[in-house]
Amino acid sequence: MGLHSYFGGTTIQTLKMAAVPAYSRVIFRPISRTLVALDSFPRHSPRPPFPMLARALSTAAAVQTTTPSTESMGTATVAKPQWKAAIDFKWIRDNREAVAENIRKRNSKASLELVLELYEKMLAVQKEVERLRGERNAVANKMKGKLEPSERQKFIEAGKNLKEALTSLEEDLVKLSDELQLEAQSIPNMTHPDVPIGGEDSSAVRKMVGSPREFSFPMKDHLQLGKELDLFDFDAAAEVSGSKFYYLKNEAVLLEMALVNWTLSQVMQKGFTPLITPEIVRSSIVEKCGFQPRGDNTQVYSIEGSDQCLIGTAEIPVGGIHMDSILAESSLPLKYAAFSHCFRTEAGAAGLATRGLYRVHQFSKVEMFVLCRPEESDAYHEELITIEEDLFSSLGLHYKTLDMASEDLGAPAYRKFDVEAWMPGLGRYGEISSASNCTDYQSRRLGIRYRPAELAASTNPKKGGKSNLAPTKFVHTLNATACAIPRMIICILENNQQEDGSVIIPEPLRPFMGGMELILPKHTGKLTG
Amino acid sequence: MGLHSYFGGATIQTLKMAAVPASASYSRFVFSPISRNLVALDSFPRHSPSPPFPLLARALSMAAAVQTTPPSSEDIGTATGSVGKPQWKAAIDFKWIRDNREAVAENIRKRKSKASLELVLELYEKMLAVQKEVERLRGERNAVANMMKGKLEPSERQKFIEKVLNHSASGKNLKEALASFEEDLVKLSDELQQEAQSIPNMTHPDVPIGGEDSSAVRKKVGSPREFSFSVKDHLQLGKELDLFDFDAAAEVSGSKFYYLKNEAVLLEMALVNWTLSQVMQKGFTPLITPEIVRSSIVEKCGFQPRGDNTQVYSIEGSDQCLIGTAEIPVGGVHMDSILAETVLPLKYAAFSHCFRTEAGAAGLATRGLYRVHQFSKVEMFVLCRPDESDTYHEELITIEEDLFSSLGLHYKTLDMASEDLGAPAYRKFDVEAWMPGLGRYGEISSASNCTDYQSRRLGIRYRGNLAPTKFVHTLNATACAVPRMMICLLENNQQEDGSVIIPEPLRPFMGGMEVLLAKHHTG
Which residues form the signal peptide (chain B) (predicted)? Predict the structure, then answer.
């Protein structure tokens, strides 16, 4: 099958660094520098070299390695963010109407007023800090010259007062910027102009393929089929693990393997690099991808006695691969197809469709993930939904693709396409995939940038030094389900059932199941017991 | 490939029940009288003179009902106190232990176990004595009650009442004395259970006695490959072939995590697919299992989910943990059930991800993929009649050896020495394969016969033709631990040009791919 050729051009050039984001130079660096001057090196050096501590304050890069103190987050007045997103506050201020409109569209609880108020306050304090620092420097310069003792005493007094005032202001600045960060993190991504405005009902059908199969016999749902074909064991799993866990048995195991293998082989042909990811990650990565690992209603399982959680989707570990790095433009787009198990608490899922395999605590999934240049993300979004649609069509499913309405988008998504497939046993359409363009929402949190190719070679590369490097930009990230196994198993079993209770295996999967064409009911010989 | 035929006889008939052990005659003796009394005294003291055998009795006499309540881990952890209350009860055959005390003591010595047989026997004798006294008092009470049923002279009646009230020198009346003894009995049986759970399984007579060095080589296949060029280890090969990313995983997850990339993903899928297809041909039923399980199941399989040095990741705010091996969820499939003898043996091949904290692994071989927090594994698990477990142990090790031979590995099989056996194992065969990059043999599989150690904890019995139930024997064996297999394949099959030859059996599962080629890093 020529799998070799898939790996031709997939090498990746990354330049890992503890990144100082461009915008943050304005806001954070002066603070950090002062903090260092005041606290760490107050008397050793009048002009400290740009030190480690400054980086720790100015970017997420260094922060993520320290264990987050969740205690302080819960109780403190101004909670301290564990890491900082590179949010473009100036852009938000300059586009306040659009941002306000967007918050309304998405029914978000974010408070733009508060963010802007905090930002203006911070700028004012920032300005005052700069002014005082200037004064202090002026005083320090004057003291370098020869002075009368009385004169010198006056300057010493003045310097002392300035220092105290600065210290207090700088503390305010840190608090303000923490508060600002926390508030601003809840502002959702902007919304694609074509996204329908409103609640779930407003979602627009983009495409519809096939039609519900007509059955000439009473059909069964996947649970019933699974029972007769001996494919699942929910009862034993409830004892061993809890409700909504399950064992896959017999042909269901082969079906899962076949779905994963087939899906990977298909997306590899489209240039995606296959991955198998860690399923335990630091909580900060989960947050940076836009999920909430803490709180009563979290979907995330946490590991006891650590800052780690289980992933709910491979989007999280794949998003983290290039965290805090600057990619070469030539390496973009990066296209990954990651196979992982996914774990979800499904807290608050009571009352939702929970029959059988539809909503479970653990499942296998192949997830596509793309990192690309901003101007290309819309095109890759189209590519991703096309790949999904092609996969589902190949399996013979009847489905529709939805352009999800604004209120149905998670905070990271700029636009989201869901595919809902017909599940005749359940008697309804069920979501089988989701493709989201997150633009720079995740990359600003994960610190993933790229450096546009060097500017025209007009400048002398030797003399130019850094100046001929274009400034870095944040990449755009997209994620899309290639195959969420249990829901795909529901579709295949319920749509492909025959009157005799057997289930026809879709042709593309057969080569991955040793040529098997049919799942036959087991003959449970009546054994005495 | 005729996969259909694998499923012919794999149907399973189980009879799930909240079981009161029939075979465990000791438990009837020890537990059911207590439970019955407790019920009579505490729950139904005045409503019914002879209560029907109630639910509460089962809760006390068997693990079945207990496992559904979340264990209060605080109790276990902080039990500086008198007697830690066991969260579930193993059906340990105390009478057998007493009757075979020399053999058990000898076995504890052989295995360098810290279990205290003396304490167990002392507690058992104490418990029997209290038990006897309880029976006697109960008889007396019943006699009094019976007499009071008849017509009595008032003076006669008064005499009986006084007899009940002033029962003994201690001044306690009959009812109070009984209650007090019964409390003692519960405490004693809890303490006995706790102590006895640490007694290791007995040991197969052929197991070499001693430490790791005493393990005996059972078989040796092939010889270390001679290289005409300088050998790379799998980390170096993985780097050149762009197969792993440990650095990104260290940032995202922590050290000893990794991403598999490119052909490594295909290799994992191929190993799993090929292994499953091989063991299915041997009659094993494939499973994909839950990877989050209740802590009690982990304990019942003989692992310690709590404590500072535990290998087990726990889920915050619940009584669940991540599995370290599919042996745990497969062991749990038939928990608290009685199987028909005709369904035995049950042979499963379970694919799962495995999660291990690797606490205390500092200093051990930790390069690259050898010791990691998460990995994929296909595990075989057999439930069978006691008289067949030795045979199935041989079958399991043969299957393992055949698999590794097919992949062209050089390995040796060891009959592990007594001190190297975990508490559940009666006998354990390890396979160690040659890893030329690491320059040593490394464990790639382990096949254990646990006899009835796990089934007595998990409550898995079988019933022959109307015969009393017996505990099944359980066995587990690695069919394919993916990362270690990858180490072997990369390091043994490397070529001078940096490429790696894929073993023939795996090629059909990798779209015909024959060789892993070094990536050309452009630009």
Answer: none
CB contact under 8 A, A279 and B342: no
The catalytic residue among A58, A434, A436, A443 is: A434
Q: Are strands A428-437 and A415-423 parallel, antiparallel or unpaired?
A: antiparallel
Domain spans in chain A, listed from the N-terminal domain onward: 25-184, 193-519
Scanning every residue of chain B, which has its alpha carbon at the shortest distance from the alpha carbon of A301?
A: B315
State mean pLDDT over B111-135.
94
User: Side chain identity at A170, as an amino acid letter?
Assistant: E
Helices (H) and strands (E) in chain B, counts: 17, 18
- The reply to whether A193-519 shares the fold of A25-184 is no
For residue A401, CA distances in Å to A404, A421, B399 come to 9, 9, 48
Backbone φ and ψ of B481, nearest 5°: -95, 105
- Omega within 30 of 0 (cis) for the link into B345: yes
Read off the pLDDT of residues B75-94 as tens digits, 9 standing for 90 and up. 333 333 345 677 899 999 99
| A240: chain B residues, CB-CB within 8 Å | 290, 293-294, 297, 329, 332-333, 335
Tell me if residue A344 is catalytic: yes
Residue indicated by tokens 């982990």:
B298
Around Cβ B220, how many Cβ atoms within 10 Å?
Answer: 11
Range with the poorest average pLDDT among A69-83, A214-228, B311-325, B394-408: A69-83
CATH architecture of the domain with residue range A25-184? Orthogonal Bundle (1.10)
With CA atoms as reference, report the closest residue to B498 among B189, B206, B236, B287.
B236
CATH number of A193-519: 3.30.930.10
Whole-angstrom CA distances from A248 to A251, A345, A517, B295 are: 8, 19, 19, 21
Candidate from A9, A239, A304 with C-beta closest to B315: A304
The reported pTM is: 0.83
